[in-house]
Amino acid sequence: MRGALITIRCDCGGVGYAPHGASWDCAECGRSWDTSQIPAAEYWAIMREMRQSRLRVMAVAVALTIALLVLVPFAGPRVLILLPVLLSFWFLFYMPRWRRRTRERARSLQHWKLHPK
Predict the structure, then answer these.
(1) Chain mean position to CA 15
(2) Less packed terminus of the chain by CB within 10 Å, N or C?
C-alpha cells in the first residue's frame, strides 16, 4: 500500500512533498531532507487510522443502501420517497460532520522536526 505524501517545509521557505522513506531536495537552497527520519510505525499508524475512517464512511453508505433496498420489496416503491430524505441527511449532516472531524484530526497530527543532510 502506498502512503500519503509528507509535506516538507524547508528553513528557507520552500515547500515540497515526498513519500515516506524518500528524500526531497529544496530547489531554492539545495538542502536535502530525508523522510526516513520519521518513525515508520508512527507514519503507518496514521495511514491506517485514516484508511479506517474512510472505510467506516463507505460501510455506513452501503448499510443505508442495503436497508433501503431491503425495504422496497416489502413496502413497495413508496419507500423510494425516503430517498431524498436519506440523501439530504447524508449530504447536509453526516458528510460535513465527518469532513470536519477528519480535518481536525489531520491538523492535530504529530509534527516531526527533520534535519537536513
Answers:
(1) 21
(2) N
